[in-house]
Amino acid sequence: MLSGIIVWGGAGVLLDRWLETRVFALVGLLLGLGVAIYLVVVKYGAVDPPAGNRPTSTTRGGQRSRPPEYRKTQKGRR
């Protein structure tokens, strides 16, 4: 998360120096923070919903259920 803030904040500081303004550093910091939080949520997943709204699942461990003929593998079959 820190690297996103540093990179986008640094880009904002450079843009501020080039355009002689003072707003792009703050915009860069906020953009870097937002993108960093988004990437963490995408990588590790969002928070689970409350137990009352959770759908029930018949499979264990997040595995997909398959017909019985696909559970057994044969030599040469992929």
TrEMBL record:
Record keywords: Membrane, Transmembrane, Transmembrane helix
TM helices/strands, residue ranges: 23-41
The name this protein goes by in its record: AtpZ/AtpI family protein
Source organism: Blastococcus brunescens
Residues covered by region (Disordered): 47-78
